[in-house]
Amino acid sequence: MNFKILIVDDDKNFIETLRDSLKEKSVEADVAVTSSAKESFALLSKYTPDIIILDIQLGDMHGIEFMKSIKDFQRLKNVPVIFISAKYTEPADRTQALLAGAKAFFSKPVDIEDLWSEIKYFVDKKTGK
Length: 129
Description:
Layout lengths: L2 E6 L3 H13 L4 E6 L2 H8 L6 E5 L7 H9 L9 E5 L5 H10 L3 E4 L4 H16 L2
Parallel strand pairs: 1-2, 1-3, 3-4, 4-5
């Protein structure tokens, strides 16, 4: 089974690190990357990821608003969202994201092992492990 991950972030180093980590963990994943809400909406019109890793600070839309928008679509309603952020790192920011429906929230720099543990939970859940 090929797990589908959408990463919405403009931080190329983070994306490369995450991709390398997934390869190291032998995760067979189809990883799609976008850097804006606009690009993401276009991709999501034809692509249904198993998980979305979302930067809360997008250039064209706040991440929480983006998440709320995609959750309006039945096909995307149950796709788990993991937020990451360099700017919004206060406990209130984390609480706001979780109350809005995010499954997890990580501050940058992200501990890749902690993020991997969260992703693995959803991979295992999807694959029945």
